[in-house]
Write a structure and sequence with these properties.
Layout: E1 2-4, H1 7-18, H2 25-42, E2 49-54, H3 58-72, E3 76-81, H4 89-97, E4 101-104, H5 125-137, E5 140-144, H6 156-167, E6 171-175, E7 197-201, H7 213-217, E8 219-223, E9 235-237, H8 240-246, E10 261-265, H9 272-283, E11 289-293, H10 297-303, E12 308-310, E13 322-325, H11 333-340, E14 346-348, H12 351-355, H13 358-363, E15 368-370, H14 374-381, H15 385-390, H16 392-403, E16 406-409, E17 415-417, E18 424-426, H17 439-452, H18 457-476, H19 483-488, H20 490-499
Parallel strand pairs: 2-3, 2-5, 3-4, 5-6, 6-7, 7-8, 9-18, 10-11, 10-13, 11-12, 13-14, 14-15, 15-16
Antiparallel strand pairs: 1-9, 16-17, 17-18
Bound molecules: ligand NAX and potassium ion (K).
Ligand NAX binds at residues 14, 18, 26-27, 30, 55-60, 62, 145-152, 154-155, 158, 175-176, 201, 225.
Organism: Streptomyces dengpaensis
Binding site for K(+): 59, 143, 179
InterPro entries: CARKD (IPR000631), Nnr (IPR030677), Ribokinase-like (IPR029056), YjeF_N_dom (IPR004443), YjeF_N_dom_sf (IPR036652)
Length: 500
């Protein structure tokens, strides 16, 4: 399990550890890990050109000490100081003693404007050109502008440096996190550094795993500095071993009923394909049997003759261990209401989200898993799609609380949150290839199967997202794939997870 902790928790753990260690020991651990990651990225340290972007906090201190280590190995290292008089004194001293040099970067943005670009003719014109040339010629830029002490998007002088780094051909390594992102939420308010690699200390921060900030982080390397973190994380990402342990496996006594029967109320005359795709996901999710209820029975049987179909309403078919309702359901509100009345776990997706009565969901005693994409979540919350996409963690928690349900918010970093708070799961296997019509229907069926097998809504949602993401990668393999192909690749995803 990969976990991420809030800034507050990290600070508390740091205080506790610092009290037991000689002064500066923690920063040396961080700097050693950072320098090693930079050296790996550079390949050859000797003769390389490294520029450090240094803010006035300890994040800049990490960058300076790491820069000193690289300078001792023969790199040409220059620190661009945003606030020369407040730069970390010990780090600066170490860099200068190792042969590094210093430039001022504090007056690059035109005074009195919000324009982040370096404007010729401004107060620091000559200096701005020197810094721009340095960054333009660098092999590596190290972003030590701001770490977990940051608030909001970058200030104009820092944003000017971030823009230069983005324009340069240098690799960009962020120290702890890309400066300008919100560490606790993954939100990005204004300018932020775009890194190729982020070297983070002690634990992942939530923002490194959640969009949109995750994209700014590039790949992430965790450096152990000895922090002891408490039991419950803010965020967790399942990995192969966690998923393998949760997959339902048939035992000697299994029959189709014990393995779980999943009911699917989906599809319409207009959207029969949604029903077929939901069933295709369900059959690959391990359910002993799938009962289909709705007007697309002919299409379902044609594609999957093993499906049990019924033309009665959901309330009158035989027993099931879980329901999926909503994919392609059009305006069939009565099926949604009937399914919500069932005393088994229910997954509500697509049209079902719009048709589900909030009080009926809240009144349910069995688990409910809602699976909106950002647009559907926005409609339920009464906000814009952009508002949801910009604040995914808050949005998923708010929706879960409002409906008293577990919510899976789809996206490149799918989030799953329970109603009662607690740890939120983030899916690490997502891929842009999954943004294809019908892919959500496959996910519904798959997650529904796992609910029928007895997994909690949080586990069913996060295991399904994991397998679905992996299947999407296998199906696409560098070329576009349809939802049907994603469903067909789910068995490969299971095998891959079980192989470890
Ligand atoms: N506390 C510890 O024990 C350790 C901390 N470490 C490093 O220390 C960092 C935290 O250091 P600090 O608490 O000094 O804080 P930071 O260095 O993260 O940030 C504080 C500085 O950033 C400026 N700042 C804040 N928001 C800004 C914005 N939007 N634009 C531009 N500048 C902004 C502030 O004015 C302040 O000068 C961590 O992220 C990590 O890199 C590591 O050395 C490991 C050990
Ligand atoms: K940083």
């Amino acid at each position: 399990m990969r976990t991420a902790y809030s800034v507050e928790t990290v600070r508390a753990a740091e205080r506790e550890l610092m009290a037991r260690l000689p002064e500066g020991a923690l920063m040396q651990r961080a700097a050693a890990g950072l320098a090693a990651a930079c050296a790996d990225l550079l390949g050859r340290v000797y003769g390389s050109r490294v520029v450090l972007l240094v803010g006035s906090g300890d994040n800049g201190g990490d960058a300076l000490y790491a820069g000193a280590r690289l300078a001792r190995r023969g790199a040409g290292v220059t620190a661009v100081l945003l606030a020369p008089e407040r730069a970390h004194a010990g780090g600066l001293d170490a860099l200068l003693r190792a042969g590094g040099s210093v430039e001022s970067g504090g007056s690059l943005a035109p005074v009195g404007t919000d324009d982040a670009r370096v404007a010729p003719g401004g107060q620091g014109d000559g200096q701005a050109r020197i810094v721009a040339e340095l960054i333009g010629r660098a092999d590596l830029v190290v972003d030590g502008i701001v770490g977990i002490g940051g608030k909001g998007g970058l200030r104009p002088d820092a944003a000017a440096l971030a823009a230069l780094a983005a324009d340069s051909r240098a690799a960009v390594v962020a120290v702890d996190l890309p400066s300008g992102i919100e560490a606790d939420t993954g939100e990005v308010h204004g300018a932020a550094v775009r890194a190729d690699l982020t070297v983070t200390f002690g634990t992942h921060k939530p923002g490194l795993l959640i969009d949109p900030a995750r994209v700014y982080a590039g790949s992430v390397r965790l450096v152990d500095i000895g922090l002891a973190l408490p039991g419950e994380a803010e965020l967790e990402a399942l990995q192969h071993a966690d998923v393998a342990a949760l997959l339902p496996m048939p035992g000697a006594e299994s029959d189709k009923y014990r393995r779980g029967v999943l009911g699917i109320a989906a599809g319409s005359a207009r959207y029969p394909g949604a029903a077929v795709l939901a069933v295709s996901g369900a059959l690959r999710g391990g359910a002993g049997a799938v009962r289909y209820v709705g007007p697309a029975a002919d299409a379902v049987i044609a594609a999957f003759p093993e499906t049990l179909v019924s033309d009665r309403g959901p309330a009158r078919v035989g027993r099931v261990q879980a329901w999926v309702v909503g994919p392609g359901a059009g305006d069939d509100a009565s099926s949604v209401a009937e399914v919500l009345g069932a005393e088994v776990p229910v997954l509500v997706d697509a049209d079902g989200l719009r048709l589900a009565d909030r009080d009926a969901v809240r009144a349910r005693r069995a688990p409910t898993l809602m699976t909106p994409h950002a647009g559907e979540a926005a409609a339920l919350l009464g906000v814009s799609r952009q508002a949801v996409e910009g604040a995914r963690l808050d949005s998923v928690r708010e929706l879960a609380a409002a409906y008293g349900a577990t919510v899976l918010l789809k996206g490149a970093t799918t989030l799953v949150a329970d109603a009662g708070g607690g740890v939120v799961r983030v899916n690490p296997t997502g891929t842009a290839w999954l943004a294809t019509a019908g892919s959500g229907d496959v996910l519904s069926g798959l997650a529904g199967s796992l609910l029928a097998a007895g997994l909690s809504a949080l586990d069913a949602g996060s295991v399904a997202a994991y397998l679905h993401g992996l299947a999407g990668r296998f199906a696409a393999d560098g070329a576009p794939a349809g939802a049907h192909d994603v469903a067909a690749a789910i068995p490969d995803a299971w095998r891959d997870v079980r192989a470890g």
